[in-house]
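Re: weekly structure request thread

Next one in the queue (140 aa):
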Amino acid sequence: RMETDYNPMELPSNTGFEEDSDYRDFEGTDVKDMRLEAEAVVNDVLFAVRNMFVSKTLRCAEDVAYINVETRERNRYCLELTEAGLRVVAYDFDQTDDRLQTPYHETVYSLLDSLSPAYREVFGNALLQRLEALKKDSQS
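Done, posted below.
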């Protein structure tokens, strides 16, 4: 079961990102725009779910975006994406339920892994196919 999609040992301890004002003022946009982040999340795993899209109804902002996902088992969720990670905020599209206290997941992979056995299978098979293709490439 994969909890993170990167190895912290691969990252330099100080990237200098925080103090580099060139990034913060990049043509008046915030680098951490959650709508862009949400679109990237959707594009990354769309092949392994039935349906997934950034909510057009719920307000997206620099610090939060909402993603609707329907798993291959036909379960619907509304996910909240923030700096803290991703979590389920409702069991239907374009909804939020403040009473729902679900854990944050660092990656979309670990969240979907916990919600959908069919996602896990499709994602695993895609990974195997990619590895097989790499193996063939390296042998030719």
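The two ends are 32 Å apart (CA to CA). Strands lie at 51-54, 65-70, 76-82, 85-90.
Next request, please.
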